[in-house]
Amino acid sequence: MNPNQVLGEDNPFEAMHARFDLAANKLGLDAGLYKILRTPDRELTVAIPVLMEDGSTEVFTGYRVQHSLARGPAKGGIRFDPNVTLDEVRALAAWMTWKAAVVNVPFGGGKGGVVCDPSKLSRLELERITRRYTASILDILGPDRDVPAPDMGTDGQVMAWIMDTYSMHARHAATAVVTGKPVGLGGSLGRVEATGRGLMICAREALARLGRKATECTAAVQGAGNVGQVTASYLGKMGVKVVGISDITGAIVDERGLDIQDICSHLARVRTLDGYGKCDRVSNAQLLELPVDILVPAATENVITSRNAPNLKAKLIVEGANGPVTAAADRILDEKGIFVVPDILANAGGVTVSYFEWVQDRMGFFWGQDEVNDKLETIMVRAFHDVVDMAQRFEVSNRIAAYMLGIDRVATITRMRGIYA
Ligand code: NAD
Q: What is the rounded average pLDDT for all residues in the chain?
């Protein structure tokens, strides 16, 4: 169990259901749709036997959950992590459904996971796990069925192996089967930065709503992976002073402001913040409670709980990770008057540019970086104000408003399609 988690608040699927129930109730969702949308469409668990470099054989467990296919192919990342559970993947798949609907791109929601620790695997072992996992879930994958993407512990190279494995079986190059691929392989310009860019756009719009100037704000970012690094860089470019960033090894802080570029160079060399000797170190728990204006949890689930929520100082939380706040902590953040940009809105830049990548692959015609960024800007700004306006209209939190928006869009399509019997 993640050391930051609190007993009773550690099941992300229950956390998703708690919010789903509140939003469904507020929408007055009928009982039939409630049952349909609460339940994942399809779940696959596979055993992944792998010949290891030392000659031994290991069997890893992999999951792929398709929560909803109502609006289009399932879309969602694949996570390689030793703590992955089926309930976590179920929650992440459902969040993808609501997220794709919040930004109104024609995808359903899916997610995958393999229980493994990539930091302890050789490149060859990682490739073997990826290819065998892909082969085992092949029947439910495809550009019109289910389109994976990177998540924690996976990257463009893993996507390239998935694309190749799928293509070898399909007997043609099927670039649109995954997104987050290297640009030379049909990836989209701007995809690597997309999630962090979307977070920056949400932070900017939220500060405007709060009447705050970026140049007068400080921020702390939990997680120094793809999302954390890009978000910290963009916040810095906006004029926000980033005073803390962390990874699994702990946090580094400097109240004068961190040199994010230097930290990213260090991470590119040694992969963790451990050994970055130029700043003070604090724990991940302390990082979350720093006296900053903006907090960006961009690592993993359930890090803000009923235990530490009362101690948070930030006025604005922009959720890079999926499910970083437990349902019990929601109420405390509301009472404290913290403006929360919820995960299914804040980190939707990733799925939005994944959608652009899928569209470009299918057209075989590729856009420039400015075109990608401009289209992302339009979608994120519209989604942000749709959610915040809805929150005001229905007098609910931004999180419940985002769920309401997403659920309503999926419910509308499900109603139109009817139930095949
Ligand atoms: P990543 O693997 O690139 O980085 C994860 C970072 O979090 C690393 O720095 C790792 O050390 C740190 N970390 C892991 N567990 C931690 C813990 N318990 N405490 C503190 N730090 C911890 O992953 P990523 O792609 O940056 O994804 C981060 C989060 O953002 C995940 O929740 C993911 O689902 C979500 N997300 C990612 C994308 C994307 O496009 N990559 C899109 C939407 C949401």
A: 96
Q: Where are the domains of the chain?
A: 41-183, 194-346
The answer to whether 337 and 359 are in contact (CB under 8 A) is no
Pairing of strands 294-297, 42-51: unpaired
Could you give the percent of the chain with pLDDT greater than 90?
Answer: 96
Which of 111, 159, 284, 300 has the most ligand 1 atoms within 8 A of CB, as the residue to mutate?
300
**Atom 23 (ligand 1) nearest CA:** 152
Residue 336 falls in the annotated catalytic set:
no
Distance, CA 27 to ligand 1 centroid (Å)?
Answer: 32
Q: Which atom of ligand 1 is nearest to the CA of 2?
A: 18
Residue 126: HSE in the Cβ half-sphere, 13 Å Cα cutoff: 19
CATH of region 194-346: 3.40.50.720
**Which CATH number is correct for 41-183, 3.40.50.2300, 3.40.50.720, 3.10.690.10, 3.40.50.10860?**
3.40.50.10860
Question: What is the reported pLDDT for 4?
Answer: 45
Instruction: Say how many Å lie between the CA of residue 113 and the centre of ligand 1.
Output: 14
pLDDT computed for residue 97 by the predictor: 98
Q: pTM for the complete prediction?
A: 0.96
The amino acid occupying position 362 is: R
Q: How far apart are the C-alpha atoms of 399 and 381, rounded to whole Å?
A: 16
